[in-house]
Amino acid sequence: MLELEFDDLLRGAPGSVDTAAFIEMGGKFHWTHLEGYREFVHACVLACGFDSELEMLSAVRCALPEAVATIPLSWKRSFRRGDWAAACNGAQVTHAWNGPMRLDKACIVLHATTIACKRQPFRPLRLDVFKYVSLHPAIYKLVGTEPLYALFTMFRGRLKDSEKKLIEGISQRLLVRDPDENGTATHRVAESFIAQALQGRAMTWRNADLIATALNTSIRNRETADDAPGIDCLPKAIKVEMTNGRNDGGKFTRDKHCNQAEAAFVALGEIKLSALRTDIAGRARVLKR
Fold this sequence. Notes:
Blueprint (H helix, E strand, L loop, with lengths): L5 H4 L9 H8 L5 E4 L1 H11 L5 H10 L1 H6 L3 H6 L12 H8 L4 H17 L9 H4 L1 E4 L2 E4 L2 H9 L6 H16 L10 H13 L5 H17 L17 E4 L27 H19 L1
Antiparallel strand pairs: 1-2, 3-4
């Protein structure tokens, strides 16, 4: 399990993530989300004997020193600029929950999560964190949406009803993906995420593609339906591109910080979520015997 290479952990656009390029460009910055981490923690409470999510996360914090001391050599070789030797403080576990975080610290937290599950004495059956949780670089941005950002943030009163419905539709698709059982994400959080996305802030591939697809569908429909969103300020197609990095001379720009409202919408896909639920159910049946 610990011989997994970064190429096996990182997920992004269809195909593969250029691991070397991402490590060089943003590995040491807070540009990495742990997709599925919240769901995995919830699962550990149900299947691994932890009383609550807080207890589970506390166990992960206690496992950090051992995790730092036993980091796989292959990870260190892949990310030589990583801060592998220094202690990973407990705040990094909070970052794993709330995202985003540094790539090296995300790997350490994943390793610590495995150790925490093995240390749990009450239930011998374990869940494999690497089977469900993966690292998703927040390095993808929308191109061509700046006019809509201005319209959405400064001139909202000029939005047509059909355009408001479009934004609400995107918001609803995001809220369906909220991994928290209590539904901590709200329409206000979703709209904040959408606004930052329209501004050009970087995000994970899946969410960038979700928003771009919705906008491009709207653009195509505006010529064929009378009540379709106008959005005349947009180009013929919205593209998703990798961000150029932080070569901005030290200035505070949108390319320097990824979308700060995305964490609530970095969730497992239906296939993995279904597999996790099945895994939990199967372990529960074994434990009752």
